[in-house]
Amino acid sequence: MHSDEIRVTGGEPLLHERLEAVLDVIRGSGVAETVTLITNGTLPERLTPGVLERIDRLWIDVYPGVPHHWDWASLRRLSARHGVAVWRRNVRNFRLTILNSPIQDRSLVQTVYTTCRSAHAWSCIQIHEGAVFKCAVAPYLAPRLRRLGLVERQERDRGVTIRGTNTLARDLAEYLASPTPLPECRFCLGTIGRLVTHRQLDDEGRARELHDRQPSPERLISAGALLAQPFLALIGRWRATHRLKWRLRYGLLQRPAPR
User: Fold this and answer.
1) 223 in the same domain as 103
2) d(CA 39, CA 55)
3) What does the mean pLDDT of the chain come to?
4) CB contact at 8 A, 192 and 229
5) What domain range includes position 37?
6) Could you tell me if 102 and 74 lie in one domain?
7) CA 184, CA 145: separation in Å to the nearest integer?
């Protein structure tokens, strides 16, 4: 397996106590041409020369209301010294994803799953407690449902176990291609939720948000995002095809041997 890029994100990766060791493992695996570190930019003191030596790109998300202490000119000089490209992105909105109550309409759950680019286009695969999940949200939704008093009544996606099996490739192929929504899709809008303004929440704000009474799921869907899904899927397939052709042309991917 080989990719053009691997993104180290979180959470906040600069909080990881062994980040340099993690980056060494990624580099040593040869799994990707480019290593990108994504940070919210609140911990500039943790962006050490050792970290910069191990990445190719630095992606900094800047959120409204979140204090930053970057000396941008110094950062760019430091990054240039280590051959690291820096990209700063101002984030104003988030797409609403997680719901506080389940979607009752099965056809809507199917639509959420079928159009979810996170599960089907972006390869947001998560490895958690010895299993592979096609959705980065699914393995972590249970604590939220527990706080809502719902977890005991809900099924859970178990993913695909990666240890002690001789059928991993087959199991993964069937799991990733399955047309059946995950149980967690009932509490999610995938990639068709409407955009909401970013808010920085403290513990009290998070507790309040957890129990907010949301409108019906149908009212929380972005019609524009829903209508754009087939077009975006077509672009994704086109990009994947041309990326493969480029890698074959320049010898970055071995052609299958003739039979």
Assistant:
1) yes
2) 13
3) 83
4) yes
5) 3-91
6) no
7) 10
The Cα–Cα gap between 37 and 58 comes to 5
Prior bond of 224 cis (ω within 30°): no
Residues 9-30: what's their mean pLDDT?
A: 92
In this structure, the answer to whether residues 67 and 186 fall within a common structural domain is no
Q: Give the integer Cα–Cα distance in Å for 230 and 102.
A: 25
Residues 82 and 107 in one domain: no
Question: Residue 6 is encoded by which pair of tokens?
Answer: 């691997």
Q: Are residues 73 and 169 in the same domain?
A: no
Whether 255 has a pLDDT exceeding 50, the answer reads: no
- Asked if the structure places residue 236 within a domain, the reply is no
Asked if residue 257 belongs to a domain, the reply is no
> First-to-last CA distance in the chain?
22
Burial of 95 (0-12, 13-18, 19+ CB in 10 A): middle
- Spell out where the chain has E strands: 3-8, 32-39, 57-62, 85-90, 93-95, 126-128, 131-133, 160-161, 195-197
Within-domain flag for 145: yes
Long-range contacts of 148-157 (CB under 8 A, 24+ apart): 148/100, 148/101, 148/210, 148/211, 150/102, 154/102, 154/183, 154/186, 155/183, 156/183, 156/184, 157/133, 157/182, 157/183, 157/184
Q: Which residue has the tokens 């340099």?
A: 20
pLDDT average, residue stretch 25-40? 91
Residue 255 belongs to some domain of the structure: no
- Mean pLDDT over residues 28-38, rounded? 91
Lowest mean pLDDT among 26-40, 104-118, 231-245: 231-245
